[in-house]
Amino acid sequence: MAAHKERSGFRWSPWNLLLLVPLLMLVTPWFNSTDPVVFGMPFFYWSQFLWVPVGVVCVLLVYLRTKGDGEYAPDVDERVDDLDEGARR
Amino acid sequence: MIQWVQLSVFVVLFLVVTVMGFVASRWQRGGALNHLDEWGLGGRKFGSWITWFLVGGDLYTAYTFVAVPALMFGAGALGFYALPYTVVLYPIVFLPVLRMWSVSRVHGYVTPADFVRGRYGSSLLAFLVAITGIVATMPYIALQLVGLEAVLRTMGLNGTGIAGHLPLLVAFVILAVYTYQSGLRAPALIAFVKDILIYLVILVAVIYLPAKFGGWSAIFGAASDKLAQPSPATGKPAGSILLTGNNQLQYITLALGSALALFLYPHSLTGVLASRGRDVLKRNMVALPAYSLLLGLLALLGYVAIAAGSKPITNNATGRPDTNTIIPVLFDGQFPSWFAGIAFAAIGIGALVPAAIMSIAAANLWTRNIYKEYLHRSATPHQEARQAKLASLVVKFGAVAFVLFVDPQFSIDLQLIGGVIILQTLPAVAIALYTRWLHRWALVASWLVGMAYGMYLLYLIPNPAANKAHFGGSALTLDKLTVFGWHPFAGSQVQIYVGFVALVLNLVVAVVVSAVLHALKVGNGVDATRGGDYHADEGSKRLRPVADVLTQ
User: Fold this and answer.
1) Which of A21, A60, A84 sits opposite B286 (nearest CB)?
2) What percent of chain B shows pLDDT beyond 70?
3) Cβ–Cβ gap B220/A40 under 8 Å
4) Cis (ω within 30 of 0) for the bond into A36?
5) Which of B47, B98, B102 is opposite residue A86, by nearest beta carbon?
6) Which of A12, A71, A81 would you mutate first to test chain B, the one with the most B CBs within 10 A?
7) Looking at CA atoms only, how far is residue A81 from chain B in angstroms?
8) Which residues contact residue B270 at a Cβ distance below 8 angstroms, ignoring those fewer than 6 apart?
9) Is residue B128 part of a domain?
């Protein structure tokens, strides 16, 4: 088996560590309080909304840094809806 | 009293979607629909936009939109777990989902059980994963119906007995027929309408309603007062707008456990496998949290309903007030009729999209991992597709029967159990994406243990408010946690999510038994996958041709 074992099935980028940052949101004692209130909303609520962009930025950075990391050959099927051009590189 | 304006708007939008569902079979059609890759995965070529609407429509279901605010309405801060759940979700699944897409694309896997079959060469393990998936998905489909019915009843179609369920039945027959006809393309196309309507409604609701009730500060004040009142059943406050010492751990483990469970559900993977490449998925992991914001705002409408003094409608089929009607009631009372009609259509169509995807996912599991594996080994792709189409009908009517003949509360309980049991496939599906160190027999053993222990703990949980002695919820007080009669946390009132506890035990068993089996040098099956398979991308020569290439 070992004879045709290819490049390891596991690839690592240090940027992946960024994916751990949003998990800090699970530390509830940090934000389980009423004050400071903003627009009448207790801290517990508005602070958790702020974690949404934090999560997005972390995932975005990992995406930008690992873009096209898959094994790729450019002969892609062209028959795709125009609406869906986001799929093109 | 039937609300004619609301009902008319609802019916018009429903008809638009129905036409789209039938037209979808011609949309972006590759080869013949008589191959599972076409019918069950839309040809595996959805790009970023379609995937975003499809997966969004799949994960954020009507039930979510109805149940999360209902939980806030009833229990306060705990219901807000939906926000951290959907924030930690994408970072957690980002890497494993990419590996799953690549390996499935290389080997032509359609379901998570297909992958397990290939990875371990064990049809038993694949069977266990498939059965878990089907059992967990069925009540989920039934719950979409509960969401749809909450809307129909609010519009005045609140009859008694079987006649009261008739509107629901009609809606579902239509859904079943166009899903049969068009496969995954139907929900993919309808998801566009659903999401646009949902966004419109939620944005209007969160801007217009708080202003109407004196701003957020008045709303949180009203919610705080109401939740602090002692509940008649238990004598304790129903909840609070902040977490208490006892439910913080529940909040954390529920958010984390739900995030780990979501992409183990077969319907989530159906959406993932239907996309055309890795970068499409990556872009989606960045863009999908847009729905999280929406869900967080929507959750707060539960408090708005308190401030507005909304009262849940009594379901005439069961004779009990149904808290799931709280958001429809709020819209009904506060919006002009025509806009309430749009809002109800958004929720109703929001039920159809996931119900269609779920029934397709369950049908794929049945066809690939039970029918082809055990009943008809030599099935041709054509026979597979035919079998899956029929199975999707059976699954949907099974769900309707559930709602018709069984108390809806039972579906809710089952969905709760579904979340706990689907989590028990994590070692066999998600960890196996990275390593085969966990032994296949250890995975069978740990599945059994996790499953049994999870069910046992759920059985122990009472719900005095609903007058139930067992299966009363997913929050276990540590006091009740037992390991063969030993109570390690006796006296503690701290709560934890049952699924999480069962998963921990599952992992411990998997590791210990694997170590023993490796020491005894027990054979671990044949791995059909290779390292590079987990990184293959669109255009790679590794990929197996999709059905339409084969049939041309």
Assistant:
1) A60
2) 92
3) yes
4) yes
5) B47
6) A71
7) 7
8) B40, B41, B58, B184, B357, B360, B361, B364
9) yes
Output the CA–CA distances (angstroms, integers) from residue B362 to A55, B135, B274, in the order listed. Answer: 31, 9, 15
Number of domains chain B is built from = 1
- Chain B residues 122-151 with CB within 8 Å of chain A: none
In chain B, residues with a C-beta closer than 8 Å to the C-beta of A79 are 28, 30, 45
CA distance to partner chain A, nearest, from residue B123 (Å): 22
B309, with CB counted inside 10 A (0-12, 13-18, 19+), is exposed
Amino acid at B491: G
Instruction: Establish how many alpha carbons lie within 13 A of residue B232's alpha carbon, considering only the half-sphere containing its beta carbon.
Output: 2
* Segments in chain A below pLDDT 70: 1-9, 68, 71-89
pLDDT per position as a tens digit, B474-492: 888 887 887 777 787 777 7
Instruction: Give domain status of residue B488, yes or no.
Output: no
Chain B, nearest residue to A56 by Cα: B286
Backbone angles phi, psi at A45, to 5 degrees: -85, -55
Contact B305, B324 (CB under 8 A): no
pTM exceeds 0.95, yes or no: no
Whether residue B492 is contained in a domain is answered as no
Measured distance CA(B113)–CA(B240) in Å, rounded: 42
B548, pLDDT greater than 50: no
Helix/strand/coil for B399 = helix
Q: State the smallest CA–CA distance between residue A41 and chain B in angstroms.
A: 6
Q: Is B507 on the interface with A (CB under 8 A)?
A: no
Domain CATH code at residue B155: 1.20.1730.10
Q: Is B329 exposed, middle or buried (0-12, 13-18, 19+ CB in 10 A)?
A: buried
CA distance A44 to B224: 13
Name the pLDDT band for B552 (thresholds 50, 70, 90).
Answer: very low
Domain encompassing residue B376: 4-19+31-436
- Which of B48, B51, B538 to mutate to test binding with chain A, by most A CBs within 10 Å of its CB? B538
Interface of B with A in 267-326 (CB under 8 A): 276-280, 282-283, 285-286, 289, 292-293, 296, 300
DSSP assignment of B67-107 equals HHHHHHHHHBGGGGGHHHHHHHHHHHHHHHHHHHHHHHHHH
- Residues of chain B found within 8 Å of residue A44, distances taken between Cβ atoms: 77, 80, 241-243
Spell out which residues of chain B touch residue A17, defining contact as CB-CB under 8 Å: none
Q: From CA B36, how far away is CA B84, in angstroms rounded?
A: 36
3-state secondary structure at position B287: helix
Q: Minimal Cα–Cα distance from B212 to chain A, Å? A: 14
B486 occurs within a structural domain: no
**Long-range contact set of residues B259-263: C-beta below 8 Å, sequence gap at least 24:** B259/B85, B259/B86, B259/B88, B259/B89, B259/B92, B259/B93, B260/B92, B260/B423, B260/B426, B260/B430, B260/B503, B261/B419, B261/B422, B261/B423, B261/B426, B261/B499, B262/B59, B262/B89, B262/B93, B263/B93, B263/B96, B263/B97, B263/B430
Confidence of residue B465 (pLDDT cuts 50, 70, 90): low
For B113, residues 6+ apart whose C-beta sits below 8 A from its C-beta are: B126, B127, B129, B130, B133, B365, B368, B369
